[in-house]
Design goal:
heterodimer, A: 300 residues, alpha/beta, six-stranded mixed beta sheet, four-stranded antiparallel beta sheet, 33% helix, B: 415 residues, alpha+beta, six-stranded antiparallel beta barrel
Chain lengths: 300, 415
């Protein structure tokens, strides 16, 4: 008997997780940002629920500082699937006085999106949210459950995690609580890219090498954009770059790359010597425990 | 093609478990430069000249500040042959609950033994739990061999001690003993010259080549077990399919099946996926099944091979690990989740506590306490289609949930 490939095993596990949550929860939603992990989630949702419609809407927390290529891709992909997308806007939260915009050259809307997300959860009464986070990304995530309970404030309490033996996920919640569910928990960055190649999934063009005006900050290449003020000694230059992660233009770093097609990207990731978040996310570099702190406060 | 192997490690910091995992990740090149840099900096701050390998698996700030350990941390690494999912469970505190959570789906469990101390109580506990969980492959990693001058006698003594209670581990299919030094990297990823008397492979090679369990590989002659998760319907067509993950055996069009617990016979019309229908779908694939007959099937039902169907019952005898602070006493009312059905349950009897070193039954006059293993009888509000855990780790397992707190309070294996 030939064993099945690791990608098929991970796929089967992820589909099982999504179907369990739909079987047990009243109002799930799937977080879709247009990034590679949530693109894989959408493919897995097709595999889990077609030919039926998705039994949940898609939700995007839009900071207003996204890459335009990603927003264009997001809307096109949603239209192709014929599914419903809810956009929760950080700009709307700012306009409504729910949050206050940071200022200065290092301003970011990263922190603000937690409020927008929690407001959207409350408004729509979501009791389960699918996210594309993976345990290989970061040490706080390495210890998180597949089905992770969040309290009324969206907070994660690492001490109060439910034991999760076998594949018996406990998704029960009380009013006001919800579960965040991570079907890609056991996937690595390389698995995600191998799966994108295997399934021939389209990804936004910024994941491939392209010419862009960038500047160097904290050892990262940040895109020149209306959302970032340059510091006095920062000089823009043109470089062939690609992105490993898709977040805000203000805090997502590019990597110098010539990988213009999927096989090149897979090769590049297989041989990389730096972690995804270490290389490209300013938000995780703020402190040693910055992800842990943000998760406790309700961040994804 | 690379396949997936699930691995669990048990042991305490003193055994060098964190160092072993750090060594495995470092030498298998699963540690990237920014992580290495971080560990080197932290090691220098502590006055060390070499990177402290244990820091690769360092915990969260909440753990350090509050002196707690979160039960399971997951690590990932790969070779050209295999992708590994490693569940790292701390050995000191609440080791029973931790190990059950981390090792429940493992193909291989690594139990660490400190060469200087030999087989101790903790070794027997970890091996017993691995057996109870039916982890098919056990690796006894005899660590710190450098501190006993790579003595073959010391190693042989540990092997003999272990064989002394091997017959109490019926759930373990094979045991492999490995002399190694995690600190220096001997026999972890590369073979060591220090132990010329050891002819076996280093740890990573063993993990790459160990044959996966029959359940994992979906052996076709095993009976079908297909817990139904959802009924999928398409408004546009008359499509009606049953979605689930195959938990045993395989599905082929034309197969006769029985729908449990009702006992309705049916025939597989097709096995659907988004990529097209399959002629043969083995465990553990997630698929959608269509049946020829128009029968009543819902979430919580199970499709099975008629000639080798599971037992349908409302009375379960099970080995249980109790995971809640408040003790379990006879008469407790809980929710029970078994595959895809959740039912009400009453714990009719707490027959015994299991001695975690020997798995022998001892009296439990005041019930089961946090981290106790025990033998219980449960009655359910609705019938369930169950297998002994020894025959199927999916249809033979359940959890108990406290309806008041929604906490998962027990993990159980059906006898």
């Amino acid at each position: 008997m030939t064993p099945i490939s690791h990608l098929r095993a991970l796929e089967a596990e992820a589909i099982h997780i999504m179907r369990e949550v739909v079987g047990e929860r009243e109002r799930p939603a799937l977080l879709f940002s247009g990034g590679k992990d949530s693109i894989v989630l959408l493919r897995l949702a097709e595999k889990a629920f077609r030919p039926a419609r998705f039994p949940f809407p898609l939700l995007h927390v839009d900071t207003g500082h996204n890459f335009p290529e990603v927003i264009e891709f997001r809307d096109r992909r949603v239209a192709e699937l014929g599914e419903r997308l809810i956009v929760a806007s950080v700009q709307a939260s700012i306009d409504a006085g729910r949050v206050v915009e940071e200022s200065g050259p290092r301003a970011s809307r990263n922190r603000l999106q937690t409020t927008t997300l929690l407001d959207a959860i409350a408004e729509h009464g979501f009791d389960a949210l699918f996210g594309g986070a993976r345990r290989d990304e970061e040490r706080a995530r390495a210890k998180e459950r597949v089905a992770s309970l969040r309290d009324d404030f969206g907070g994660w309490d690492p001490r109060r995690q439910r034991p999760e033996p076998w594949a018996l996920y406990n998704t029960r919640v009380r009013a006001g609580e919800h579960v965040r569910v991570f079907p890609l928990s056991n996937w690595t960055e390389l698995d995600v890219w191998q799966y994108i190649a295997q399934e021939r999934l389209e990804v936004p063009p910024i994941y491939f090498a392209h010419e862009r005006d960038v500047f160097r900050r904290d050892g990262m290449l940040l895109a020149v954009s209306p959302f970032v003020e340059l510091l006095p000694d920062e000089r823009p230059f043109r470089e062939s770059v690609r992105y490993r992660t898709v977040g805000d233009m203000s805090c997502t770093g590019a990597v110098a790359s010539r990988a213009t097609a999927l096989p090149d990207v897979v090769r590049e990731i297989a041989s990389t010597r730096v972690t995804e978040r270490g290389e490209t996310r300013a938000d995780d570099r703020a402190s040693e425990a910055s992800m842990e702190d943000r998760k406790v406060a309700g961040y994804f | 093609m690379t396949d997936l192997l699930r691995l669990a490690t048990a042991g305490s910091v003193d055994d060098g478990k964190s160092t072993l995992i750090g060594r495995l990740l470092l030498d298998a090149k699963a540690v990237l430069s920014d992580q290495l840099e971080h560990v080197e900096q932290a090691s220098r701050r502590k006055g060390a000249t070499e990177p402290d390998l244990a820091l690769f698996t360092d915990g969260l700030r909440a753990e350090r500040e509050q002196g707690i350990t979160i039960d399971v941390a997951y690590r990932y690494f790969a070779t050209t042959r295999r992708r590994f999912v490693l569940a790292d469970t701390p050995g000191h505190v609440q080791y029973t609950r931790n190990m059950i959570t981390g090792a429940s789906t493992a193909d291989v469990a690594i139990v660490l033994v400190d060469a200087r101390h030999g087989v101790v109580e903790q070794t027997r506990r970890h091996a017993s739990i691995a057996s109870l969980l039916r982890v098919p492959h056990l690796v006894v990693a005899v660590n710190k061999m450098d501190l006993v001058d790579w003595s073959e006698d010391v190693f042989d003594h540990i092997v003999r001690d272990f064989w002394g209670f091997r017959n109490r581990l019926p759930g373990v299919a094979d045991v492999r003993f490995l002399p190694l030094s995690a600190l220096h990297g001997d026999n972890v990823v590369s073979r060591s010259d220090a132990a010329p008397w050891y002819a076996g492979p280093p740890l990573l090679e063993h993990l790459e080549t160990v044959e996966l369990s029959a359940e994992h590989a979906g052996v076709p002659d095993r009976p079908l077990r297909f817990p139904v998760q959802l009924v999928l319907r398409d408004q546009g067509s008359d499509f009606r399919g049953y979605a689930g993950q195959i938990a045993g055996g395989s599905l082929q069009p034309g197969d006769a099946v029985v729908v449990l617990p009702a006992g309705t016979p049916a025939t597989v019309a097709s096995v659907e996926t988004v990529d097209g229908p399959l002629d043969d779908a083995p465990a553990p694939l997630s698929v959608t099944v269509r049946l020829e007959e128009d029968v009543d099937v819902a979430r919580g039902d199970l499709l099975a091979t008629p000639a080798a169907a599971p037992v349908v019952t409302r009375e379960l005898e099970a080995d249980v690990c109790w995971m809640a602070d408040a003790p379990l006493r006879p008469g407790a009312r809980l929710l029970l989740k078994h595959t895809t059905s959740t039912v009400r349950a009453i714990v009719d009897g707490v027959h015994a506590r299991l001695d975690v070193e020997t798995l022998a039954e001892v009296a439990a006059p005041d019930g089961l306490h946090l981290n106790d293993l025990g033998h219980i009888r449960v009655r359910t509000s609705r019938p369930l289609a169950v297998d002994p855990y020894a025959e199927n780790r999916t249809t033979g397992a359940f959890v108990l949930i406290d309806e008041g707190t929604n906490d998962t309070v027990a993990a159980a294996m059906i006898r």
